[in-house]
Write a sequence for this structure.
């Protein structure tokens, strides 16, 4: 398994999708549906787009775990990467969310699936920080370099540096924090709209980091291990070119293929020379999701990658007694975790 590119993903099939009014104030990427379009019509379009993403990923040999959500009070549940991340070595993180109507997107059935299907040793839950007004919205707030063990994060009220430090201690990453703003000086709400870090290529809007010295430091860290950096413009970021994710697929004969998943809108915004650099190491899989992008996120936001080892298939003759003594993962908060968690690898 690639450290960066998971072979399995989690998608949420949100039957009641709509742009979330509770996040519109600080998400400059959000937009309203066309005038005259009913909520049911918007939801139906989004549902078709979610199914298209799942089909496109399965077509290139990626395992897709789909969970349905019929709850009309969870308009952003299509974006599970904000509350959940998984990590090599058997660790799962659960995150504190900024918008109060997003906090019940966290689902025990998703965690139970991970525990039963994959080797989960530890669940570290930071969500108890929400009452204190402290937030870190998962791999939306952070973009993780799994090769160099760096957590890139643009400061915002959805991305608290103290929680980042705790995460980095617990999961053994180096924090790299910076400010990132648009042309009007508005802070970027999530790091993953301006950056995607893959194994051999990274897409990054470096010019949105106003501090020239910090910009160069980020560039140098990205280029470790001879990784190529595709520099995105702010205009491309607004087309969601940064909101991509590297995944591991399979050819029909079982050979591995490296995928860069993004939206069709994002792909159209890239120049031919940028596409050529990406395709030196990745096969681009692009899906048109204009309705979902109204909510201010794109394909990366839709995907919670599974960086866990699968459990071996159990033989039918295994008894219930054996099942009962199967190892249960320990759940702890981030303060306890540093001394308990084994190094991820």
């Amino acid at each position: 398994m690639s450290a960066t590119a998971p072979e399995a993903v989690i998608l949420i099939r949100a039957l009641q999708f709509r742009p979330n009014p509770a996040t519109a104030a600080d998400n400059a990427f959000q937009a309203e549906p066309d005038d005259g379009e009913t909520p049911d019509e918007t939801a139906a379009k989004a549902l078709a787009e979610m199914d298209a993403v799942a089909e496109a990923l399965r077509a290139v040999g990626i395992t897709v775990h789909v969970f349905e959500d019929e709850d009309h009070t969870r308009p952003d549940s299509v974006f599970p990467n904000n509350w959940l991340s998984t990590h090599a070595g058997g660790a799962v993180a659960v995150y504190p969310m900024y918008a109060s109507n997003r906090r019940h997107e966290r689902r025990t059935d998703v965690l139970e699936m991970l525990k039963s299907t994959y080797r989960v040793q530890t669940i570290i839950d930071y969500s108890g920080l929400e009452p204190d007004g402290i937030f870190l919205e998962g791999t939306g707030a952070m973009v993780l370099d799994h090769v160099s063990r760096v957590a890139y994060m643009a400061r915002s009220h959805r991305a608290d540096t103290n929680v980042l430090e705790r995460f980095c201690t617990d999961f053994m990453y180096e924090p790299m924090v910076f400010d990132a703003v648009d042309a009007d000086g508005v802070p970027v709400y999530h790091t993953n709209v301006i950056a995607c870090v893959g194994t051999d290529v990274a897409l990054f809007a470096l010019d949105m980091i106003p501090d020239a010295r910090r910009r160069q430091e980020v560039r140098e860290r990205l280029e470790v291990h001879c990784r190529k950096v595709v520099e995105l413009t702010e205009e491309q970021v607004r087309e969601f070119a940064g909101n991509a994710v590297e995944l591991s697929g399979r050819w029909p004969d079982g050979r591995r293929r490296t995928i860069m998943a993004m939206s069709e809108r994002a792909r159209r915004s890239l120049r031919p020379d940028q596409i050529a650099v990406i395709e030196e190491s990745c096969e681009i899989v692009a899906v048109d999701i204009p309705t979902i992008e109204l909510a201010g996120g794109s394909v990366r936001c839709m995907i919670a990658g599974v960086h866990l080892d699968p459990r071996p298939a159990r033989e039918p003759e295994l008894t219930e007694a054996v099942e009962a003594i199967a190892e249960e993962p320990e759940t702890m908060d981030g303060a306890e975790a540093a001394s308990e968690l084994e190094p991820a690898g």
Remarks:
- Confidence is low (pLDDT under 50) at residues 321-326, 335-345.
- The chain is about 25% helix and 20% strand.
